[in-house]
Amino acid sequence: MPSMGFSFPKENPSSLLAWPLMEILAVHHPLVAHKLTALRDVNTDSPTFRRLADELVTLLAYEATRDVRVSPVTVDTPLQPAQGVRLSRPAPLVVPILRAGLGMLDGMTRLIPTAEVGFLGMVRDEDSLKAQTYATRLPDDLAGRQCYVLDPMLATGGTLVAAIQLLFDRGARDVTAITLLAAPEGLATVESAFPAETPIRIVTAAVDERLNENGYIIPGLGDAGDRLYGVV
Ligand code: URA
């Protein structure tokens, strides 16, 4: 069956920021704003932070998957046949970046339970702020796959660039990153890292002001991994 093509929602009330080569969707919705505000709050404890992050990802995933590929099907209702759609094969690939991206996985797979899940283990060197990859678990061939990368904080952009490059190296060309927060510096880094003909989509709850000298997003929410899992 041919896939039905849906385009990314240009007319969506959320803002598609004017970044020339990248589609950036900052989702404007009262529930997104409410949950993000509670995540920012330094008084929010880890269990509550985990729950809120999970809920927020589901809301962001709803927007991020507007162009997920579906194929037409006919089903029998109790009364008569009806036209509908099913998710196309191959299933989308969801790739959380360990450690903090793991806190986003359930929120994503709740919407697409048939998604396959790859893993990337990456750590940011706190001196150089460069990403180091310590684990890769991905299908060898990602040609034609819709890929959704999960990383809560798009800060310098180094980790996301390295992750997307690993997907591109395996043939992926349709990559959407879902983040809780993004910094303008990180968005610029990701945009300049990839050619115009392979645009990356970024879906985020908000684009914050800036990075501080330690590469933290301001005002941000602190260290997402620590807030999800404690300081380990
Ligand atoms: N990683 C985080 O967890 N928080 C930031 O603000 C930046 C990077």
Q: Please report the distance between the alpha carbons of the first and last residues.
A: 48 Å
Bound molecules: uracil
The helix-strand sequence is EEHHEEEHEEEEEHEHEEEH
The CATH architecture is 3-Layer(aba) Sandwich
Number of helices: 6
In short:
With 232 residues, the protein is of the alpha/beta class.
Outline the structure in words.
- The protein has helices at residues 30-40, 46-64, 105-109, 158-169, 184-193, 224-229, and strands spanning 15-16, 23-26, 70-76, 81-87, 93-98, 116-117, 119-124, 131-137, 146-150, 153-154, 174-182, 201-207, 210-211, 217-218.
- It has 232 residues and is an alpha/beta fold.
- The protein has a single domain, classed as Rossmann fold (3-Layer(aba) Sandwich).
- Strands 1, 2, 5, 6, 7, 8, 9, 10, 11 and 12 form a ten-stranded mixed β-sheet that branches. Strands 3-4 form a two-stranded antiparallel ribbon. Strands 13-14 form a two-stranded antiparallel ribbon.
- Helix 1 packs antiparallel against helix 2.
- It starts with 14 loop residues before the first strand and ends with a helix.
- Residues 153, 155, 215-217, 220, 223-225 line the site of uracil.
- Uracil binds next to helix 6.
- Pfam families: UPRTase.
- Belongs to the UPRTase family.
List the topology elements.
Layout: E1 15-16, E2 23-26, H1 30-40, H2 46-64, E3 70-76, E4 81-87, E5 93-98, H3 105-109, E6 116-117, E7 119-124, E8 131-137, E9 146-150, E10 153-154, H4 158-169, E11 174-182, H5 184-193, E12 201-207, E13 210-211, E14 217-218, H6 224-229
Parallel strand pairs: 2-12, 5-6, 5-7, 5-9, 9-11, 10-11, 11-12
Antiparallel strand pairs: 1-2, 3-4, 7-8, 13-14
Helix pairs in contact: 1-2
Bound molecules: uracil (URA).
Uracil binds next to helix 6.
